[in-house]
Design brief:
Distance between the termini: 29 Å
Number of domains: 2
Structural class: alpha+beta
Shape: globular
Oligomer: single chain
Radius of gyration: 23 Å
Order of helices and strands: HHHHEEHEEE
């Protein structure tokens, strides 16, 4: 009898999760990839500001998609509780909190055009996301100071475009090369270990 109940629970949970996953897949297939933001590639600084506007628009869309994804959370909770308890259940039933939209203040500090098709821009970026948490003194200082970024912007037939982005490291062991690339393709790896939570 116990085995029959267990098998029934697993079948119910599997069927329910499959239905929810199908609905979520349909939502993402219907979601429009079009975003509204002003694009101006006429100069290095305008191209950078356009890039920032795109990042904000993309973050907004990701945030809205995340909320849509977890709209069915109450429906999923009964399936989670069939398999989990304790920390696992607590995390799985509170995932809506993972949907977060950060805000930033960005200020261009210097634009240096090195050639007709190459420019370097320095900018300070600060995280201005509101929070109810009390920051440590270090976190408060980091937030007020912000981070320094260096952008390599190159021109092609359609205008100026972001080519490379570096962030100034504040760690002492990075003195020899304090500029760390923000976009770096990592080599493929053999999938020898689990990556996601199991």
């Amino acid at each position: 009898m116990k085995r029959l109940v267990a098998v029934s629970l697993i079948a119910l949970a599997t069927t329910g999760c499959d239905q929810i996953n199908r609905k979520m897949a349909e939502h993402f297939q219907k979601a429009s990839l079009e975003m509204e933001f002003d694009k101006d590639l006429s100069s290095p600084d305008n191209a950078l500001k356009s890039w920032w506007r795109f990042l904000d628009a993309d973050d907004q869309r990701s945030y809205e998609s995340c909320q849509k994804y977890f709209e069915n959370q109450p429906a999923r909770e009964k399936y989670y509780s069939a398999f989990t308890t304790g920390d696992v259940l607590s995390v799985k039933t509170n995932q809506i909190r993972d949907c977060r939209l950060d805000s930033y203040s960005r200020e261009i500090q210097e634009v240096k055009q090195e050639t007709e098709t190459r420019a370097v821009v320095l900018a300070t970026i600060k995280n201005t996301t509101s929070s109810s948490m009390n920051p440590t003194e270090t976190e408060k200082a980091d937030r007020e100071k912000g981070s320094t970024y260096r952008y390599l912007i190159e021109k092609d037939s359609s205008g100026w475009k972001i080519s490379k982005v570096f962030k100034l490291s504040t760690y002492s062991f990075d003195k020899n090369d304090p500029w760390k690339p923000e976009y770096k393709r990592h080599p493929d790896y053999y999938p020898s270990r689990p990556i996601s939570s199991q």
